[in-house]
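Researcher: Here's the sequence for the chain we discussed earlier.
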Amino acid sequence: MTNTTQPNFGSILQQVAGSAFEAAGYELQANPTHQARGLFRFRKASSEGLGMYVEFQMLLYGDAPSRFRVTLLRNKGADARDPQDSNRVEVSLSRLIWEQFGVRQLDTPDYWWTFANSHEMAHAIAHAGRLLFGFGVPWLEGSLAPTKPSEKPNPTEPDAQY
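Model: Thanks. This is the structure I predict for it:
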């Protein structure tokens, strides 16, 4: 089994989804420290001064399948997780589509995309990308509202905890 490295993940992420991010106005943040830890973050600034972020966190495992998850963040601070913004929003893509939209394409609201090689990685990124640009990015930018009432707090509310 051939596994991947973080630079390979970033390269394949850019090949598979980079043009979609670019077309939507998101830019990959050049942060070698984050990327060395498997964190790849795209950012877009809104006209209202909000920072909107899409993070891919990849976990590399030696002899087992590796995995990644996608997290959506929005705030007015200088960083994706700036504690100064009490209205900061952070939710995983899988939790958002599971709980807010009622979409059950994934096994669980705490879903991680898994892959054992570069080919599987590219397919997993493409699958996540379809959900991301179908639900996550429009929701993050405020152009798509949840369609399913949730028993959990709405992640657009300031006190939402995920």
